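Entry type: protein chain
Record version: 2
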Amino acid sequence: MDMEAAAAAVEKNKKKTTGGRRGRREMRRIEDATSRQVTFSKRRSGLLKKAFELGVLCDAEVGLIVFSPRGRLYEYASAPDLQQTIDRYLNHTKGCTPANMKALETAGAQMCRSEATALKQKIDAIEAYQRKLSGEGLESCSAQELQELELQLEKSLSNIRQKKEKKMIDQILELREKEEKLLRENSVLRQEYMALPLLELATRSVAAVAATRSPVGEEQAEEEQEEERRQRYMDVETDLVIGRPGTFSL
């Protein structure tokens, strides 16, 4: 959601949304490094924008110097040269008395407090708008405000659905790739399985040939041949004659 758009939408009805504000935020160092860097970038951009607007709208000579936590320099000057503004400042404060310095410090503190107050109002307006998007604090909303909230929610819901559909499509494509990979692996395994009977037949043939060529196989073959010869001898018919020839026969 665009935060500036949200703030603009709420500031339009500021009188109705100022009720029930939260307490003042605690101004202290942000512990999380990522959040601190993001906040610095946003505040720095806003500060430079304010300095530019002050110089253009009010024809003021503005000089701004900012060092990031990592030591990077950011500067802005409404004059052609920032050093010119710095020299002017040094000349102006050279003869300042402590009272004048205190007055300058007081003015600076007052400006900071005003800026902090404006930021707090903007933050409160954004938080109030977010609570309304969550369905809270809708009693003070007009029909026009409710319609705007409804349109915003429908837009957000449409974006969420688009993201969800994209995620689902990506998951489907990933599953299809896995399916194709498994099918290829299954085809390879099927071909290997179909080749197993032929391999076993070849192995048995080799084993049979090796058995016939071994000494044990030769002995078994000779025994079979001897048994076959004995069987032939037993089947041969013989004529036995007892006594003188021609007198008796069996």
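Comment: The helical segments are 3-11, 14-17, 33-58, 82-94, 98-133, 143-194, 196-213, 215-234.
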